[in-house]
Amino acid sequence: MAGGSIPVPGGLGSAADVAATEADGATWLEHLHSWVVTVDHKKLGVMYVLYALLFLVVGGIEALIIRIQLFFPDNHFVSAETFNRVFTMHGTTMIFFVAMPIVFGFGNYLMPLMLGVRDMAFPRLNAFSFWMSAFGGLLLYYSFIGGVGLQGAGSAPDVGWWAYAPLTSRAFSRGHSTDYWALALIVSGFGSIGAAINFIATAFCMRCKGMTLFRMPLFVWLYVVSSGLVLVAVSPLTAAQVMLTIDRYLGGHFFDTQAGGSAVVWAHFFWIFGHPEVYVLVLPAFAIINEVVPVFSRKAIFGYPAMVAASVGIGFVSLGVWAHHMFTIGMTSISNAFFVLSTMLVGIPTGIKIFNWIATMWGGKIRYRTPMLFAVGFLVQFLIAGLTGIILSVAPFNWQLHNSYFVIAHFHYVIVGAILFAIFSGIYYWFPKVTGRMLDERLGKWNFWLFVIGFHVCFDVMHIPGVLGMPRSIYTYEADRGWTGLNQIVSVGAIIQGIAIAILVYNMIHSALKGQEAGPDPWDAWTLEWATNSPPPPYNFAIEPVARSRRPLWDLKHPNDPDEPLEEG
Amino acid sequence: MLSAAVALAAAGAQRAVALTSNTNTSIFSPESTPSRSIYELSLFVLAVTGGIFVVVGGLIVYAAVRFRERPDDDGSEPPQIFGSNQIELSWTIIPVLIVVVLFLATARMIFAIQDAPKPAAALEMSAIGHQFWWEFRYPALHITTANELHIPVSTDADPRPTFMKLTSADVIHSFWVPRLAGKVDLVPNRINELWMDPHTPGLYVGQCAQFCGVEHAKMLLRVYVDTPEQFAAWVKQEQQPGAQSPASAAGRREFESQACMNCHAIAGTAAHGQFGPDLTHFASRKTLASGAADNTTENLERWIEDPDSIKPGSLMPSMHLTPDQVREITAYLNTLQ
Description:
Chain A is an all-alpha fold. Chain A has one domain (about 50-569): Cytochrome c oxidase-like, subunit I domain (Cytochrome C Oxidase, Chain A), CATH 1.20.210.10. Chain A has 17 helices and no strands. Chain A has helices at about 10-20, 30-35, 40-70, 80-115, 125-145, 175-205, 220-250, 265-295, 305-320, 335-360, 370-395, 395-400, 405-435, 440-465, 485-515, 550-555, 565-569. By secondary structure, chain B is α+β, with helices and mostly antiparallel strands. Chain B folds into 3 domains: about 1-65 and about 85-115, Helix Hairpins, CATH 1.10.287; about 125-240, Cupredoxins -  blue copper proteins (Immunoglobulin-like, Sandwich), CATH 2.60.40.420; about 245-335, Sandwich (Immunoglobulin-like), CATH 2.60.40. Chain B is elongated and about 100 Å long. Chain B starts with a helix and ends with a helix.
């Protein structure tokens, strides 16, 4: 759009000239080879996202199997064993092989572009991290074939994605299914740690001229905090998996209660990972919202320093809340009270963020293109998810709600209603940058409205069976429990969401081939990724750009009203 | 609004359930002090979070609608505002105050429930979780039973709360009877505690709330709250050894000569097994296989013949008995009142 005439340093004109010579006339094998051996952050970012979307479809099908099974009481759509495998695989897949790679993909693609540099700090480590994550997913799914093992028991893991000891010990989990689960998480965990190191190093060491830490887009700040959490949180998970494997094969007794080990220690290890993990995923969602809301409201983000402080604050507090997953495991009253307080404290910086997003929209001129629709959906649903989180942090109330469908509804509100909505917002926002073509706006609106309706039909209603005493992880329930109608509504909502995701997949394929040409800056945005071509050339910027404020492209488009003097004043 | 809607819908659904059956497990129809205290705290928490939802949700919707771009817009950019310390400080302090209030209310309730003193009249018993059934022991009364828990009613005039110690023989389970108390996990190598003082006699159902393996869904739980007379009679009956009669002697011989006795105990016979439920008064129980089926002759024969046909994955094996053996054992078990 307007971008073509802007004299961005290293920007459009010069970049476009050089890019034209790229990889024409290569055979498909050469193309494939170039993707497999690439160390380019953009190609790796795209592979992360495509890999995650593939697993999103797999995990989504698993969710639909769960919902069909629970549609009728005493249903026999799948057996108890199969149901237990399916919900274990659904949880593990969605967290480790959808949510993690998709946020890493966004970070990989965008962070160097936003910082105005050529690549991540460690391109080879970047490729290594991606392939480790990818092999982790393959290893997990190979359990369907290889998990039978010598004793002939089990195929896919069936211990829940939290895999509480001692259900994972050899006495209760024969065959190799649990081993595939543990190894898949160890392998992908190394990938996550490598990616996190890379993000932190890139943000601190790889900024273009003029890009001080406090001029970095908030997107980058949130990835720094999220990556810090990955380093602190994924390491104990990896350690726990190693200990579990020692228990299973080398006669260790860390979690083997029959030999004096402790089931509670596993729970601590798992949730020391598991709770910060929620923030590992939600901070990148905040990152996307921090870019989308200002651009589509046509205003600068409200309270940038407070947003940075709140993000770092959430990061620190989130490391001290893990045992709120364990209020029923028998901790002392003092410990319970401590974790109630620490959990509630997270609400304060989170509240600051929500208020600042509202203030950013306040007085703006909001353009409701598809990315902004998803962003507003995010705001409402994240608010509700946060409030049910406060409800669950009230330990006595948690003694009733823990492990009920209320909890399932709550964390799907976080992971689907907030994180996935933000990711879809990001897909619609940056797809033109990545492919050079716009996603179809009409399909986008169908995608959004069907998803939002399906989401609320499914997950709003899902709170109620929890209140009525329905526990999670049950493969069936009796007809006289009063849960049937509610479960049927939930299942219908799940199917509507499935249709919405099918529309997204179709839209991405269709638009990548035949979509409208995007140009370098279709949204009239302000951060540096919009200063280069769409798609960007392999070297990103022909000339290194210079940042004079937080919104370099705003300064160029409004030379009489640049950002920095206002902020300094 | 959200929480109010949840509460309303739950209350409606709960009324529908309460009218048709005694399988109500709503946390909003408490019948015991801990569950009632939690219920009252939950109303307060729902009111606070509902209020926050109305205010903040209203602000989001207002901003989203009021500040949309109009069709006749001139295309100019709106005024750029970068922040305001006063405003940001105010929306930091208000959440801090809300957190303080919620925390104090919560902490008070944690201590009130978790550290409640045990009165001298309390009934002490213990629950042991197994894949996939419940073992209940009353050490002072010398009673061991399974799956259907009997406890006395507790009234203001005659307080008789039940204090339960919980542990597990294998993996983690969780004891959850929503109308009586919040759930507490049964963890191997560890003893947890829970108390309840049900005010109304009757049947209260619940089930295992921590995934524990294949048949986690069929690890159901029935709590009979008895009047003092009923409870005394039940205790007296449970303290008797297993009923013996010449008519069922063949079944008993069969039971004692098959592998049944390796896992099950029947007081007064050679059967002392510990892996499965104690069957001394099996015929007095309404259900079998931890609530998976009604305790009828037909179901029991099917269960002994092939446990997987009722509860696939149950740890009780099929012993490949002849139809006559199954009938005799069933007839014997049916005499164990």
